[in-house]
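I am still getting used to backbone structure tokens and would like to learn alongside you. Please make up or recall a protein chain and show it to me in full. Would you write everything just below, so we can both look at the same thing?
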Amino acid sequence: MKNIEEIGKYKLFDGLTEEQLNKFKKVIQVREFSADKIIFNEGDVGDSIYLLLNGKIKINQALTLKLSKEDYDTREKSITELSSNSRPSFGELSLFGDNDKRTATVIALSDCEMGIIMRDDFFSILESNYELGYRIMNNIACIVVERLIKTNQDVLKLTTALSLILEK
């Protein structure tokens, strides 16, 4: 598939050789999602990384924390919209740490084509070649740091707005 042939353009795969990219191309499962279809929900168990090969998606997060099963607010805030033109990957956070839950809901805004790399395939490839594993983990660290910086800026804006409201 043409879009899989271009995975080297995704930040996740920066700096990989064609031979290294081929290892991932072999395990990518391609799935199609129609417009308005939920790709995964916040809180779902995560076992894969997604590549948006074609289309547009929206990422939502719950506005409030879940305190109990009975006390759950389902209101969501749209965090961002992504297009395949920017070659985004997402879902990687659920592969790391003790909590393997998805941290957001992802919804197709248009008909989408996704490349999915399952956890076992992903780590098998990384463990088979430590140089490759280092490169991918470094790329993931860079992606997560960029997102963390943006989140910190958003929290600062919200904190500033809240403090201005409370001063009145």
Q: What stands out?
A: Residues 2-167 form a domain with the Jelly Rolls fold (CATH 2.60.120.10).
